[in-house]
Amino acid sequence: MTTGWSIYVIVLVTFNIVGVAALLMWTAKRRPGDPKPTDTSHIWDGDVTEYNKPLPRWWMILFWMTIIFGVGYLVWYPGFGNFKGVSKWTSAAEHDQQKKLDDAKIDKAFAPYKGMSIDQIAKDPTAVKMGRAIFANNCATCHGSSGKGATNGYPNLTDNIWKWGGKPEDILTSIQHGREGLMTPWGTVLTGMGGPSAVDAVAAYVRTLSNPELLKNNYMASQGKAMYEGVCVACHGKEGKGNQAIGAPDLTDHDWLYGDSTAAIRETIQNGRHGIMPPHLPLLGDTRTRVVGAYVWSISHPTESSGAH
Predict the structure, then answer these.
(1) Contacts of 266 (CB under 8 A, 6+ apart)
(2) Cα(46)–Cα(66) distance, integer angstroms
């Protein structure tokens, strides 16, 4: 808080406290010349009279106690401009202290799973249950509460298709350090190679990789094959099997991260895609990321885990 704002707050608080105290003193007693309590001339319905009497003494005492409490509060806690208070209390310090206590409780609860592989942790029903809670709080926003993902770039975690590898260490790496998948926009390049219909031709050929029968007597797809082999094989391979080391999807299965419609495939080729899985190690720490990884493993390998999900 700047000095100017601090002075403003101090003046405002002092004015309010002094003003309330002065008002109480002014109204506490009757003065010579004041009309009698019954001389207000305010009468309704013939017998309902408004009186003008001082507040009861016990009520006045409560008001004074409130003022004294307020002054004491401002002495003990910060609230009087830049004055930090005798206690030096801050909300940040209280938060840090409480967080330290909570972290100690969390560390104790997760200690049995420290350094364990996620497939081994997944055999413990208690760990899987804790992992499910962590997943719901941190992962369900993108992957859904059931882990089935969505066709706008969020992978299904319940199947056996893994863009970056499905080994326990691969899954843990994805959770802890995140992933960044980049599909380069090829629209301009392909148009220069094969004209206005080039993107449509490559899209047609990509469809045949998961269903080779579509390639028969398919002129558009056959045109796209040559361009695919000239541009796309670097990442997806000649057979379209992809490359998990760089997150290039397998185009021969029936899993489509951004949808399997012709429009969706064409959009991917034309304008590219940019998918980001944020790193969760800084947020959750090593052990909790392992436990949530165990839950992910359990929903994709139900026969190998505790099945407690």
Answers:
(1) 199, 200, 203
(2) 39
Please, what are the domains in the chain?
A: 3-89 (no CATH), 116-178+278-300 (1.10.760.10), 185-274 (1.10.760.10)
Q: Give the model confidence (pLDDT) of 29-85 as tens digits.
A: 777 777 776 676 777 877 777 777 777 889 899 999 999 999 999 999 998 889 999
Q: Count the alpha carbons within 13 Å of 53 in the hemisphere toward its beta carbon.
A: 8
Average pLDDT rounded to a whole number, residues 174-185? 96
d(CA 215, CA 231): 19
DSSP state of 298: H
d(CA 240, CA 206): 8
Nearest CA to 220 out of 236, 200, 237, 240 is that of 200
Which residues, including other chains, have CB under 8 Å from residue 81's CB and lie 6 or more apart?
A: 1, 5, 6, 7, 9, 10, 13
CA 159 to chain CA centroid, nearest Å: 25
C-alpha distance from residue 248 to each of 238, 239, 268, 279 (Å):
13, 13, 13, 19
Amino acid at residue number 254? H
Spatial contact of 210 and 251, defined as CB atoms under 8 Å apart: yes
Q: What are phi and psi of 154, to 5 degrees?
A: -110, 110
Query: What pLDDT, on a 0 to 100 scale, did the predictor assign at position 308?
Result: 47
Instruction: Please give the model's pTM, rounded to 2 decimal places.
Output: 0.72
Structure confidence at residue 309 (pLDDT): 44
